[in-house]
Design a protein that fits this description.
Layout (H helix, E strand, L loop, with lengths): L10 E3 L4 H11 L3 E4 L5 H6 L7 E4 L9 E4 L2 E5 L4 H6 L1 H6 L1 H7 L5 H6 L2 H6 L5 H4 L40 H7 L3 E6 L2 E6 H4 L18 E8 L6 E7 L10 E10 L2 E10 L6 E2 L1 H7 L6 H11 L12 H15 L3
The structure holds flavin-adenine dinucleotide and iron/sulfur cluster.
């Protein structure tokens, strides 16, 4: 019988200082697990699929909580709850795209406990991987989803390499559109990286969706003021209205002057292992009047090069329509 409700033993650490947490990660290396709100972590443990020797509960580290305005924009501690991000007045007034995206994550209960850092760092939701099967992402040498009979309607359209799982996070495309920077700390110091370096696909590392190393922590996310007050659009389509991951979502930040699109950043989740920035769309719409015609062209350009698998072909028109609506309907 498979026991699914009892976790294997581990050493639990509950540091209150960042330096102590980093020291523990250094000592345990790959055997340590970082836990924020625990919504992703605890499921892995209960299913007995991930069996870390040590769990570092980060929730007591005060300096990783909270939101503050800075001269360059806004800095959000990685442990800030999704609810606090959604309700924060700076985010709501200047970077509404992020609060709109957060509002679409899971349920109010999950948003009360789940953190912005955990949401951006969450693992792939592919059913085979979550079931504990030895696929590529789990260190094996096959993909169970990429077969003629594989359950793959939720899988990727772009940039697949052995694994066809997608980025499941609703906040990730909004962070791409807002050109967020990620503050990563280890005992050796701090590095600040952009979204293209933070989110990684199977060509870079097939076993992880983010580039944070075992001895490192994501401590904060910075949103530059470059996009403050832009026209924003977020939309998510899932199989049901509540409590479900996106089939496809879209996030757009568009600067419009006298009706003309000056610059933009547009991204979709649910279509590749990383939230996919749509630079082709950004180029197509630059300098054009915001309206239905250019929006339709944007939607068509967004899906160029898509390579569906057996059961996810519906994602192509879905993605095109979402991008069309984002470009047409983004508002201040
Ligand atoms: C039923 C259900 C429905 C859901 N629906 C959605 C949805 O619709 N949209 C959506 O976007 N998400 C959804 N989620 C995912 C949920 O939002 C995430 O699991 C949650 O946000 C993770 O946050 P957490 O703080 O609980 O992270 P944890 O579970 O603690 O951590 C998640 C992962 O991130 C790593 N991690 C956490 N913090 C850090 C850090 N500071 N530095 C480095 N690594 C870190 C952990 O090691 C772990 O691998 C759903 C989850 C459940 C259980
Ligand atoms: S899509 Fe990726 S996670 Fe899913 S079975 Fe294939 S290799 Fe594993």
């Amino acid at each position: 019988m498979v026991v699914k409700d009892m976790m294997p033993n581990f050493d639990l650490f509950q540091p209150t200082q960042l330096k102590d947490a980093l020291g523990i990660l250094d000592s345990y290396g790959k055997d340590a697990w970082k836990m924020a709100g625990g919504y992703d972590s605890l499921v892995w443990f209960k299913e007995r699929i991930k069996r870390p020797k040590a769990v570092v509960d980060l929730s007591g580290i005060a300096e990783m909580h909270g939101i503050k305005e800075t001269p360059d924009g806004v800095e959000i501690g990685a442990l800030t709850s999704l609810t606090d991000v959604e309700r924060n007045s700076i985010i709501k007034t200047k970077y509404r795209l992020l609060s709109d995206a957060v509002a679409k994550v899971a349920s109010p209960q999950i948003r009360n406990v789940g953190t912005i850092g955990g949401n951006a760092s969450q693992d792939a939701r592919c059913l085979y991987y979550r079931y504990g099967l030895p696929c590529y992402r789990a260190g094996g040498n096959t993909c169970f989803a990429d077969t003629p009979e594989g359950v793959n309607r939720e899988h990727a359209l772009f940039d697949t390499d052995r694994c066809i799982a997608v980025s499941p996070s609703d906040t990730a495309p909004a962070l791409v559109a807002l050109d967020a920077k990620f503050v990563i700390r280890s005992t050796k110091g701090e590095r600040v990286i952009g979204v293209e370096e933070f989110f990684i696909g199977p060509k870079v590392d097939i076993t992880h969706l983010i580039s944070v190393q075992p001895n490192e922590l994501l401590t904060a996310i910075r949103i530059p003021k470059t996009w403050a007050g832009a026209h924003f659009y977020f939309e998510k389509v899932a199989d049901r209205e509540a409590f479900d991951f996106a089939l496809v979502n879209v996030a757009a930040a568009i600067v419009v002057s006298n009706g003309t699109i000056e610059r933009s950043r547009v991204a979709c989740g649910g279509v590749s292992a990383v939230p996919r920035r749509l630079t082709v769309v950004e180029e197509v719409i630059k300098g054009k009047p915001q309206g239905a015609d250019i929006a339709k062209l944007a939607g068509q350009s967004a899906v160029r090069g898509a390579r569906p698998v057996n059961y996810n072909q519906f994602k192509i028109p879905l993605m095109a329509n979402l991008v069309t609506r984002a470009v047409r309907d983004a508002r201040a």
